[in-house]
Amino acid sequence: MTATDPRPSPLVPSETDLTSIPSMLVDVRRALNSELMTECDPGSAFFAIVLFYESWHQRPAASIPSSDTALCKLAGFGRDQASWQRVAGVAMRGWVLCSDGRYYHPVVA
Question: Does residue 92 carry a pLDDT above 70?
Answer without folding.
Answer: yes
